[in-house]
Amino acid sequence: MYRSDAEQLIRKSIARFVDAEIIPNAQEYDNSKEYPKEILKKIADMGVFGIRYPKDRGGCGGNSTLFCIVCEELARGLMGLGATVAMQCLMGTNCLFIYGNEDMHEHYFLPAMKGEKFGCFCMTEPEAGSDMGAVSTRAEKTNDGWTINGMKTWVTSGPIADFYTVMCQTNPAKKIRGLEFFFIPRDTAGVSVSKPFDTLGTVTSKISEVSFTNVRIPDAFCLTRDGQGTGYLFSVLAEIRCMTAALAVGLQRAAMDDAIRYARERQAWGKPIGNYQLIQAKVANMAVNLEASKLMTYNALKMVDRKIECKNEASMAKYFATEAACSAADSCTRIYGAYGYSMEYPAQRHFRDTRFLLNGGGTHEILQTNIAKWVGL
Amino acid sequence: MDIVVLVKQVPNTTDVKLDKNTGNLIREGLESIMNPDDRNALEFALQIKAEYGGTITMVSMGPPQAVDVLSEAMGMGADKGLLLSDMAFAGADTWATSYTLGKAIEKIERFDLIICGRQAIDGDTAQIGPQVADFLDIPQITYVTDIETVSNKEVIVKRRLEDGHERVASQLPALLTILGGANNPRYPNIGGLLAACEENAPLAAWNAADIGVMVNDVGLAGSLTHVIKTYVPKFKRQGETLEGTTAEVVRQLIQHLGKSEGASACKAVAATCRLMADTKQEGI
């Protein structure tokens, strides 16, 4: 009997949703800067949040490639939405899925799969970004559990989350090897969340600081132990980078689609500007970069799904696809001419949203440093 | 309540382009989708199942890749899919298609209701539903916009007329054809889509032998009609929508009429209107 190709089927279904429900309203969502609650409910109802988790644990039985196909398509519609969904599907729930106990599974993970609760990942600190050994949020063992003190920043979905996966230092002498992950429900005494940041791009994705002051949690909320945290961090980082690359691919497609549409419509000297070679060259470069980005991203993802180490491939894909997204958004604004400078057209949104991609999953400066090291320098 | 939903995979366009030399549909670059009216039909079936229980069996005739519309339907909540696929089915007109679908449905052990879209966006005939009902000798209600109640014995629906609606009751089993826009079809669930792609998914494929038909009775050979020529309609004139208040629209119309080349009658109308406008100012 014939069977459908799962990747094509999922892509087509999500693309139809994005074309009908997101793209026609993307500008409105972006202008309002509101958290798009209703559209996220629809995404949850489609089972998207469980896409990369097994069926017997409340997921859909998909994999990382399928998850990133969804991220790519959503980012093609609205990057802020793609960022929020990516957080919920991966960083916000993954550590709980792997290390959480049955109680956490029932009361947090399963509701998160249905979109009834949201989780997020607290890693970056005001003084510790790429240098994770400098993380100062401290987890101290007590007789009956742990006490957490510190502050996290640039927490995507921080303002809307019901629970946090927090990277803490358990032994400062061990530096990066002392990092472990803790589960902290938002309603725990001592947890406070700042107002959402006023950001340049991805304005529908809510980002904030989350601080922990003498937060007491039971021992069971320590998700990783005895150095597991560092291993988990490095393994999830590869998938985060692939996911960011997929978001960048989505943005490239959006920028190219809009640029082509405008180049066909806009007339100069009696013909569409798309008939002029300098515009064609820009679109051709966008298309070539897009194709290369797709190949690199989905090649790395196949390695993630086969559990083959791919830190280098994932870093290269994230670096290349994001730089290509920056270039595509820049070209899009240029093809729009003066209208690329107007807030009424989508070109400016693509341009602003690229800044989110540059930092999430590692800055390009640190990625380039790592890539050079990994290839032997 | 056991429901059969007929579904067709169609090219994603209402602006069909034909090869000038062969007269065939140009499929290159065209995405294939579930026929939009069929999506509305499935949504009603899913609503009935949610209220009364039962099963939904999707039936489609097409090439192997048409399995995608069955998978999508299962992602939306259908229980089973049946693909009628055989080279012998190719080139069928509506008669041969309805005969093939009817023979397959006969082989399905039990059904209370058959629901299908009013028409497919590629053929636009709206004949398949009525012809299948005729073949199976069951009542049919076309142009349905709402299904009001369903019981074990009858269905009451609202159907569109040229000048309004009427409520119609029919005994079961019956066939309904659903108008596009009659409801708001749900999006597929990711888990359901993935389950439909698995080897053990409840999807079956039947060929001519499976449904017990002779190859001369189906496909091009079994068709009662034959296409002599296909061509792309030429649009010599294109419409334009004028926007604004009534007065503004009339003014724009007057300007357009005045510019019409070689149309003295239009110019005369324009001149008359202009005169009226001058006289009555805003009260055109």
What this model shows, in words?
The complex is a heterodimer of chains A (377) and B (284). With 377 residues, chain A is of the alpha+beta class. Helix content of chain A is 52%, strand content 14%. Chain A folds into 3 domains: 6-113, Acyl-CoA dehydrogenase/oxidase, N-terminal domain (Butyryl-Coa Dehydrogenase, subunit A, domain 1, Orthogonal Bundle); 119-228, Butyryl-CoA Dehydrogenase, subunit A, domain 2 (Beta Barrel); 236-374, Butyryl-CoA Dehydrogenase, subunit A, domain 3 (Up-down Bundle). Chain A is built from 12 helices and 9 strands. Chain A is globular, with a radius of gyration of 21 Å. Chain B is of the alpha/beta class and 284 residues long. In chain B, strands 9-8-7-10-6-1-4-5-11 form a 9-stranded mixed sheet, with helices on both faces. Chain B has a two-stranded antiparallel ribbon with strand order 2-3. In chain B, helix 2 (67-76) links the parallel strand 4 and strand 5. In chain B, helix 2 packs across helix 5 (190-196), helix 3 crosses helix 4 (128-136) and helix 6 (246-259) packs antiparallel against helix 7 (264-280).
Most extensive chain interface and residues per partner = A-B, 27 and 28 residues
CATH superfamily of the largest domain in chain A: Butyryl-CoA Dehydrogenase, subunit A, domain 3
* DSSP helix fraction of chain B: 25-40%
**What's the helix count of chain A?**
12
- List unreliable stretches of 5+ residues of chain A: none
Helix content of chain A: 40-55%
CATH architecture label name of the largest domain in chain A: Up-down Bundle
Average of pLDDT of chain A? 96
For the record, the CATH class of the largest domain in chain B is: Alpha Beta
Shape of chain A: globular
Into how many domains do the coordinates of chain B divide? 2
Oligomer: heterodimer
Low-confidence stretches of chain B: none
Average the pLDDT over all residues of chain B and give the rounded result. 89
- Strand percentage of chain B lies at 15-25%
